[in-house]
Every structure is written in C-alpha cells, then in structure tokens.
Amino acid sequence: MGLSSHFFSYENHNVRLYKGSTNAAPLPAASITSFTSRKHKPSFNKMATLTVSRPLFGGFSFENCKRNALLEGEANKVGCSLPAARKTGTTICGVVFKDGIVLGADTRATEGMIVADKNCSKIHYISPNIYCCGAGTAADTEMTTQIISSNLELHALSTGRLPRVATANRMLKQMLFRYQGYIGAALVLGGVDCNGPHLYSIYPHGSTDKLPYVTMGSGSLAAMAVFEDRYKPDMEEEDAKRLVRDAIAAGIFNDLGSGSNIDLCVITKGKVDYIRPHDEANKKGVRTGDYKYKRGTTGVLTKAVTPLALEVVEETVQTMDTS
Amino acid sequence: MAAAAMVPIFGQNVSDKYDLVPDWTSREVSTGTTIMAVEYDGGVVIGADSRTTTGAYIANRVTDKLTPIHDRIFCCRSGSAADTQAIADVVTYQLGFHSIELDEPPLVETAANLFKASCYRYREELTAGILVAGWDRRKGGTGTVYCVPIGGMLVRQPVSVGGSGSSYIYGFMDSNYKPGLSKDQCLELTAAALSLAMERDGSSGGVVRLASISEEGVERRVLLGNQLPKFSTH
C-alpha cells in the first residue's frame, strides 16, 4: 500500500529544499508502512517497523486477498474448489523485422481443463500504431489493455503526437507494479513509432524487457524454441510472418493450454494488418456417419391433432454476435 | 545476497491440480545475478551477467542489468526484476529533478542515498540489492562505489559484489583486489570474477556486460560466451 501507490504519485510531489542536506525532495509525505501488507516475506527484524499507526491513505488494499486465501482453504477442506478464473492458457509472441513488428497469438481460452472459448481474440488494440498480445487471466489482460489504450489516447491528444511504444510500456509497467502481481497479465507489446519498431515483454509483477523477439504464456517455451532456431535480424515481412506462424503452431500443438487458430498482426509505419485468422490450424472435423433417420423408419400407430388458439402479441428478432 | 524471492503465496492457490498453465509461468521474474563494481583512480568499472529467470526458465538471456541513473552514475541491479526496475525509474526521476535544481551534475553519494531511502522505507515489500557506482567532481574527480543490499543498508566500498553468484567470488575478490589498480586491470578483474561466478551459479549466465565510467564518459562492452576468460581445462 505504502509501496506501490506512493512510488508513482508524482502529483503529490512536494518540492522542499532542505538546508544542508544532500538528499533531493523526498517521497511524498504521509506514506504508510502498513503492517498488514507484510505479505509473504518473513520479517526477521521487528525493529524496522514503527509502532505508530497512521490512518490509511489511498492505494490498493490487499486485505481481501488474505480473506480469499482463507476461503479457498476452507472450501478445499470440504472437498469442493472455487470456480477457476478463465485464463488464456496461451501462446503469444512477437518479432521485430526489417520494416516493423509481427505479433502472433493462438485463440484458445480455458477455464480449468475446459476450453471456454475456441476463438477468442488475444491481440488487443492500444493505439493505431501499437498493439498488445495478452496472456494470463483473460479479464485482467482485457481490462488492463483497455485502460492503457484509453489513457494513451488522452495523452496523445494532449501531446498532439502519435503515441510511442515506450510510453505504453511505462504506463503498463507502472500499473502492474502498483498491483504487485495480483493483476495476472503477461503482455507482449509491439508497435512502430517515430523512432522505429519496438517490442517489449511485460510480466505481471511489472518488469519489462526490450528484445528483438519475445514469447509469453504456457506455450512460450515451444514458441521460443522455434525463434531461437530460425530468428535472423532484418527479416522480410513474409519470412517474419512465417516464423511467427510456426512459433504459434509449435505452441498450439505441443501445449495443452493453447489451441485453435493462429492470429497475426503486422504493424509497419503507417499500416496495420490485423489478420484474424491467419491460419485455421484446427478445423472442426466432418462426421463420416449420419444419425438422422428417414421418415417412416418408425411406424405410426395412432395420430391425434389438437390445434392451439394462440395470438401473436409481439415479435422481435435479435441477431447473435457470432464474430 | 541469497537466492531470489519466491512469489507471494496468497494469489497462487487457485486449482493447482488442474493447472494447464505450468508453475514457472506464475513465478516472479528475478535477476538471479552476479554484479560487481570496482573503483580505480579516475573512475569506476562495473560489470554484470545477463540472465533473468522465472523459476527454472530463463526469461531473458541478454538482460542489461547496468542501468544509467544519470550521465556519469550507473546502478547494478539484483533481486526482483520488477522491484529494481521500479526503484531505478523512481531514483532516475528524483536525481534528474535534483540535478536540474542544483544546476550541477549530481554526486554519486546523493544517488546512493536516494536508493537507500526507497529501499529502507519499503524494506518489507521489496527484494532489491543494488550497487551504485559513478564518477563525480568530489575530491578532484574520483570514482565511487556504494553498496545498497537487501534491507536498505548504505556503505561505501572500494570494491563490491552482489547477487546470488557473489557468494562464489568473495574469496577471489579478496585475494586479487589491490588498491591502485589501473582501469584495464579492473576490467580484467571484473571479467574474470564474473566468469567464475557464472560458471558456478545456476542463476547467473549469458554474456558479461562491462562498463567503465570516468570524466570522459561511459564506455560499454559486451563479452560473449566464447570471449570469456577460461579457467577450467576440463
């Protein structure tokens, strides 16, 4: 609480010059060392914590996480388990090629051992020139990318410039660090801006790496194997697309948490190609037999027809979104 | 500086038995690490390995753990990747602000104190072991190394090592460091020490990144696997 929120509350930054001190302006006043947030690390030195308790002050409260863990334990003792959050088991990856970025993702979303969505979209829009693949908890990746996309649009309107990938990276890492890993979003962020193509991998705890090729998700090891074998700097677009397609395919066929189709997103200067699906790697099979029986297979003994007098009051048609 | 921290237990109990997603994907990313900083007359030499791990998987095999905080001040990061990146960003901001107010390049001691302030105040929540090293105008222009280990202590040392791999090279450092080494001797010492640590520590590896900071500027170098000094013959 003290840590994650106060690290980045620059708005509260009070500039005070201390006479004779070499320190710069301190971190915002009234930051709290909350004892309750002493989560996982065994505290060897009791001497370090102050005994003065101060009123809680903004920031995220992790109290409910302890309660949830207790409830989970009790449920397990009785024999039932709490519903699992829908995760995108996932293989996602990205690669920098000569003119830009290619991002790739599979399309399977799982709830425990069941496939919840056979064709979900894991490549999220951040800004016209920046896209982000998400692995981990589906809700977390969805909401996080939407929040940052919205903030980035406001920021771009304020600066009057096309947003930079480094800006999106910093916003995402600062938000994820603030939530100390409880937001389970592992992201591959890629885009092209005024400084060229950039690719970042962002982990749930808020650490980021800037690399020429990255993979994330449960199938990341399979995809990384393909990249480590065949990646070359400054590839052509077709080679890059083929490489990403093969990497995702490796994840789909070798990892249980990934499956269905392969989506690609090719970002170059001034153009974005959102190819969904790029490759239907897993088509639903066609049945060889048919269970429909011909009319007259079962003999009719008696027949009685009763007409029902019904009045049509209102008729509405609502089309289902099957995209 | 013992091995990296494990991830908090609270969030991780969700149906472990039925997990399609393997365990290492939910581990926190840590820079297992070996880092080192040496003072010489006129500057400092810093070095680090390049491995970042999540559990048993190497998330990044070419990490740059030598992070610039200011023009002539660097920090070497060990511990949790997220924590050290966040702290380094905060201190970079604070030091840049302070430097503009002063209208002067900042002192290494100032940067070290800023690190200490953050690391000590949030010592219960953070896992960060940092070496702050750089060149400033004090005492005619010298290099200085400060060590800010886990817990938030601050101590100035002529030579310092950190990270999980440091345990293996304390003896090497104690026997081979002498005051009054030249820049090239320091570079050789650092490269040798890091290679030895990387050989023995599973959480350290990849390439050796070196940097030397002096009044003239910062010189960066990378030693790839086949360029590392060799010690064992078998």
Topology:
The complex is a heterodimer of chains A (323) and B (234).
Chain A: H1 2-7, H2 63-78, E1 87-88, E2 92-96, E3 100-105, E4 109-111, E5 114-117, E6 123-127, E7 130-137, H3 138-159, H4 165-178, E8 185-193, E9 196-202, E10 208-210, E11 213-216, H5 220-230, H6 237-254, E12 262-268, E13 271-279
Antiparallel strand pairs in A: 1-7, 2-3, 2-11, 3-12, 4-5, 6-7, 7-8, 8-9, 9-10, 12-13
Chain B: E1 30-31, E2 35-40, E3 43-48, E4 52-54, E5 57-60, E6 66-70, E7 73-80, H1 81-102, H2 108-121, E8 128-136, E9 142-148, E10 155-156, E11 159-162, H3 170-176, H4 183-200, E12 208-214, E13 217-223
Helix pairs in contact in B: 1-2
Family (chain B): Belongs to the peptidase T1B family.
Active site (chain B): 33
Keywords (chain B): Cytoplasm, Hydrolase, Immunity, Nucleus, Protease, Proteasome, Threonine protease, Zymogen
Summarize the structure.
The complex is a heterodimer of chains A (323) and B (234). By secondary structure, chain A is an alpha+beta fold. Chain A has 6 helices and 13 strands.
Radius of gyration from the alpha-carbon trace of chain A, in angstroms: 26 Å
Number of strands of chain A: 13
Name the shape of chain B in a single word: globular
- In DSSP terms (H or I, runs of 4 or more residues), the helix count of chain A works out at 6
- Low-confidence blocks of residues of chain B: 1-18
Radius of gyration of chain B: 18 Å
- Report on the biggest sheet of chain A: 6 strands, antiparallel
Summed over residues and divided by their number, the pLDDT of chain B gives a mean of 88
| Helix/strand order of chain B | EEEEEEEHHEEEEHHEE
Beta-strand percent range of chain B: 25-35%
| Overall 3D form of chain A | globular
Give a count of the beta strands of chain B, DSSP E runs of length 2 or more: 13
Give an account of the 3D structure.
Chain A: Keywords: Cytoplasm, Hydrolase, Nucleus, Protease, Proteasome, Threonine protease. Chain A: This is proteasome endopeptidase complex. Chain A: One of its GO terms (biological process) is proteolysis involved in protein catabolic process. The complex is a heterodimer of chains A (323) and B (234). With 323 residues, chain A is of the alpha+beta class. Chain A has helices spanning 2-7, 63-78, 138-159, 165-178, 220-230, 237-254; strands at residues 87-88, 92-96, 100-105, 109-111, 114-117, 123-127, 130-137, 185-193, 196-202, 208-210, 213-216, 262-268, 271-279. In chain A, strands 1, 6, 7, 8, 9 and 10 form a six-stranded antiparallel sheet that branches. In chain A, α3 packs across α4 (165-178). Residues 9-46 of chain A have low confidence and may be disordered. Chain B is of the alpha+beta class. Chain B has helices at residues 81-102, 108-121, 170-176, 183-200, and strands at 30-31, 35-40, 43-48, 52-54, 57-60, 66-70, 73-80, 128-136, 142-148, 155-156, 159-162, 208-214, 217-223. The longest helix of chain B is centred in the middle third of the chain and has 22 residues, at 81-102. Chain B is globular. Mean pLDDT of chain B is 88; it is low at 1-18. At the A-B interface, α1, α2 and α4 of A face β5, α1 and α2 of B.
